Amino acid sequence: MKNKTDTDMSSAEKQPLRSGAQCVVDGLIKAGCEVLFGYPGGAVLDIFNCLYEAPFNFVLSRHEQGAVHMADGYARATGKPGCCLVTSGPGATNTVTGLATAYMDGVPLVCITGQVALDMIGNDAFQEADVIGITRPVTKHNFLVRSADDLPGIIAKAFYIATTGKPGPVVIDIPKNVQKQMTAALTPETVTMRSYRPDVPINEAEIAQFAELINNASRPLLYVGGGAISGNAAEALAQLAHKANIPVTTTLMALGVFPETDPLSLHMLGMHGSVAANYAVDHCDLLIAAGARFDDRVTGKISAFANKATIVHIDIDRSSISKSVRSDLGVHGYVKPVLEAVLPLVKPAEHTEWLEKVNRWKERFPFTYPKNDDALMPQFVIEQIDAVSEGKAVVVTDVGQNQMWAAQFFRYTRPRNFITSGGLGTMGFGLPAAIGAQFGRRGAPVVCVTGDGGVQMNFQELVVAVEHQIPVVVVILNNGFLGMVRQWQELFYDRRYSGVVLSQKGRAPNEQVAETSGYLPDFIKMAEAHGACARRVFKEEEVGPALREALASGKTWVIECIVAPEANVFPMIPPGAHVAEIINRTV
Amino acid sequence: MKHIINCLVENQPGVLARIVGLISGRGYNIETLNVGPTEDPTVSKMTIVVPGDSHVIEQVTHQLSKQIDVIEVVNMTNRRHLDRELILVRVATESHNARAEIVDLAALFRGHVVSVQEDSVTIQMVGNQETVADFLCLMKPYSIVDISRTGVIAVGREAPGASAAKG
Question: B2-78, superfamily in CATH?
Fold first, then answer.
């Protein structure tokens, strides 16, 4: 640098020009990105060029949807924001399902999409799509970057928005010319926005009222949702529950936030929740909803839901309070500080009579299933995952019956150990999300519980696990049906199995295909073709050893369990019905 | 009941689409919508008239507040306020008498005749929602040929700083 003059030096120091693409990579580093999932294309070539030297890992998915689900699984397993990068047009539109999945469940993601050059926008250019318009309803926020000068600030804002308040996905759409543009703008140290202030001060009057309601209740119940996990409220929740002896039921999204082995746990509530939890909701005189949003799969018939109870609703999303079920007291705030604030005002209580009643329901109506000598029961497989992993597995599910059995028959004791697409119910989520979860939790046993339907939606991502030596164990519960839809057709549509038969036999008249010798595809061959270890099991005694071998191997495994084809998920409260109409054919 | 909601938003491209998309996506109706700059060039004000019961309006205001580009949401209907709408209404004048009657009625509502044709007269009239509705009701028998409305705008009548912050 001897040849440079003093003025050159100082101006270079004052204005270290960076390209927009470099700003993206620097912004990701600053945000603590450990792994970036994505797929390249013409409109993000400049960013990929800068990525070449990036200090974090890049993981190439085989479809953009897979990349977003991986980032999502990573975020749910770690609590850190997931990051992904895709190209314009089809690359970006392929992320929509993944974004909507993350949006419904409040998962922090930052998704960077390439865009055609600014002067081409609106011209129907090659690989152009109105990504801002398309993703607006499925993201917490999105940005179209018009100048590289804005880029460092926007990236910092995107992570701030994604991770604060109710977390959610944020899209940053970056035109190709902006990636090339040079700028002196620096990544800001802190972000403040006049139009977004996620921190809510504790309202002492509300807390006092909340405490009084708890102290006066004789049949209180905690109904805990995903907000307690994203808000790291597990400890505060346990303290409150134990101090006042309040039984706890969680939503699907919150499984594990309160140990299900605790005597106060009533397990999951809702359509496929435990009888005890749903009876408790029906009988309680105080329902404390903590970071839950009264989803229709929880409430059933809204007018009859918890109709003997005073309802307190704690939520960081003000628009969630009284959205579907009117609350008597809304407490706007993060679950953890609210519970911590109310705790000293709550008097210790026994609630003996109430707990006895609740425990009688628990004993009388446990999650159970009929034994079948001829076929492997899917519920047994889940119990074996719990047993073999000694309750330590991070269970990532797909959607449908496999998801509900995974929720019912594994006893979750830690937050972030049950990962599932709850709100959107996205089939195909399980496998890529499990891979993402394992990237975030390297040492943990990660088991993907999926079905023969859902696993086929993103099977191509298995190769990502194999090549990165991600020891995910994929358990396919193969019943030859799209099981949950079949169950509804069995129960509510007179067993007319339309569009749900995956095997080649027994299809509806208009779906007939030439019958082949067996089930297609052959998942074992498929898994092996992707480089994974694989085994097919038929009998109870084969399940434990297969799981033990797979979990100990440190390799990517697929275990295909041929299970009873028409096993159902019970208990079940029919959609829009009251708990009194519960169907519970478990013997 | 109709509610007048004032919304201060970041003056950025795409914000209008965001607000309109939110309202239609959640199944609410917009009766009128007016957007304009404020004294601060980085802030725009939207005035949205939404019909609905108090539960719907509560949801609308919370959902609007949740938008990242929204700085402040105020339901003007719940507070002392002034609201006005300007209308241009062209009314058929089939007879000399009809024209005279229309001009008389307009004068009673402090409307002005802004254009006269052989077979019609155009009135400019400004008023709050109720006055505008009353005037249009009186014009109906004369067969309205065309009508353009600006949509309602509203300002608060309380001391500055009394408005509710975004929450």
Answer: ACT domain (3.30.70.260)
